[in-house]
User: Fold this.
Amino acid sequence: MIELDGLTKRFGNKVAVDGLSCVIRPGMVTGFLGPNGAGKSTTMRMMLDLDHPTSGSVRIDGKHYRDLSEPLKYIGALLDAKAMNGGRSAYNNLLCLAQSNRIPERRVAEVLETVGLTAVAKKKSKGFSLGMGQRLGIASALLGDPQILMFDEPVNGLDPEGIHWIRNLMKTLAAQGRTIFVSSHLMSEMALTADHLIVIGQGRLLADTSMADFIHENSRSYVRLRSPQQERLRDVLHEEGIVAVEAGDGTLEVDGAATEDLGELAARHSLTLHELSAQRASLEEAFMQMTAGAVEYHAHSGPGGDAPPDGQWGEGWVQRPGGGEGA
Assistant:
């Protein structure tokens, strides 16, 4: 378990992390989300005593990281796969880590097998591809067989098979009762992997909730209907007090009604439906909604800072006070 209590980090006048408190619990994969510049990397570095907090504290199973005599046996982390010594072989990189934490040498071969690098164990890591380097970084995190694992962008550089492998690995480790904490910008992958979410923006906690609750609370869910008897369907819905909004693609959208109830209503009135589907937002859509006010860096979406077409303000565009605009 990882406990953050009022964690704060300032760099001069810049507050990177601002009073962050949360508990990362065992037995689940906890996703760590936030826009660029939100303070995610700084937070993870403070967890490992690579950066020292201005105030507040982090405890790893009740202890400060600096008080762990053999830290790799408590917590394994992948923050930067490039941190390995490129002049050493994959095997020797891991062997040095093992010896520094009194980990049996047999674990080196075991984790190399786990990550699929046995065949290149004797090759220098400077010749590794991005994906191979990522696998070596994951092997270093697993080396001490810790109960807590932290991964920052673990799928970076991995091919589809590798992404599927690391996703299943994290789920398996969590099912064993371990604490898994993972940061990623790939929302589609996070949606498939994480059980719980911690979301920060501008260094502050925005959400600490389950994946399902986060999407439900930060997005719109509705039912989409399409019928060759569209006008009659609209009238029937209106008679039942159900508000239907016509979408641009010739369908009707209904909020606040169950799919089953709408299907039964259509059947009672002998209405033909070509579509009756529940629409739920993706994690990405919910994330954009939640963090809209906490995005620090905006990219231009149009030439010369002009307003977007048809006044459609969205991601990448900021409408400034007083009617000005830009990205």
Remarks:
- The first helix runs from residue 40 to 47.
- Confidence is low (pLDDT under 50) at residues 303-327.
